[in-house]
Amino acid sequence: MSESSTSSVVVVTGANGLVGSRVCAALVERGATVRAVVRRAGAAPALPGVEERVGDFGDPAFAAEVLAGASAAVTTVHPMGSDRDAQQRIGVEDTLRFARAAADAGLERLVHVSTAAVYDRSPGVGDVDESSPLVADDAGDYPVTKRDVDLALDAVDGPTRVLLRPPAILGAGESSVWNTLRPAAMREDERARHAVPHQTFAWVHVDDLAAIAADVASGRIATAADAATGPVAGACTAVNVVGGCATVRDYQETVTRALGVEPVWDDAPAWTGELLADRARAWGWTPQVDLATALAEIESGLR
Question: What is the separation of C-alpha 33 from the centre of its chain, rounded to a whole number of angstroms?
Fold first, then answer.
């Protein structure tokens, strides 16, 4: 049941990115007005109901201006391929400043696109849910900075905060890691074709991720007293957003077949558990894109 009207105003940061642009479209479909935050004029999705706002989301003055009168915000920005300093500055510190501005502006809901990479998925670790241990400090720049912003957002008082934790995000787009960037590396460099075939490949399609982000931000998924049934009102709730769990072989063979190159299989320990998304499904989220469709989209885009 919805908590808010379809005329809600939602701010989306990184609105020109793979996830941000899809979230904007999903919000418009739900009747929301979207303030699309981008760094370059003309980069926001050209959709009815989308208002482009050009600026730095980590600038407190700009954040206060763009958040004024909004009911919710969705944060999607993290410079994944950048060095540790940039990930810390933009992904952690700017996101935290934006979250504090959202609290000061009286927003009802703040949705942050996190990642399942925050969980310890070492070889031998079994299935993973929202209560599972997070990565240690030596896990790498991306998992650690994403972990740190999650922990920081947990300490921000005010809005109902929801941390969406997707695994590999599949979907067509120039900036898509799994549909575009990794295949490009595999085409050019034999080292990128190495993989452990039986390792778990947990995935979600970007359109299904955008759907739950929009449903939470627009209030279609109502708050609850228990995370088992909805975002906890006034608290910070993590939720895994998983379309399914395949194997790395499924992904690697799809890409290499389309590229006309051979995969290289390594024999090494790997995580073979399942990333559980029972909480998201209990909230009413049902992914629409199956594995065959997602892989066919990758293959079609590469041929």
Answer: 21
The bridge status of strand 9-13 relative to strand 160-165 is unpaired
DSSP 115-128: -GGGB---TT---B
pLDDT value of residue 4? 44
CA distance linking residue 59 with residue 228, whole number of Å: 35
The sign one gets for the Cα dihedral 67, 103, 33, 58 is positive
**Stated pTM of the model:** 0.96
SS3 content of the chain, % helix, strand, coil (to 5): 40, 20, 45
pLDDT at res. 215: 98
Q: What is the CATH number of domain 9-302?
A: 3.40.50.720
Q: Judge contact between 163 and 115, C-beta under 8 A.
A: no
Which residue type, as a one-letter code, is found at position 279?
R
- Assess contact for 98 and 56: CB atoms under 8 A: no
Q: Is 54 left (phi over 0), alpha (psi -120 to 50) or beta?
A: beta
> Distance between the two ends of the chain, CA-based, in angstroms?
43
- In the predicted structure, residue 6 carries a pLDDT above the cut 90: no
Tokens representing residue 234 in the block: 């006034």
DSSP three-state, residue 80:
coil
Amino acid at 299: E
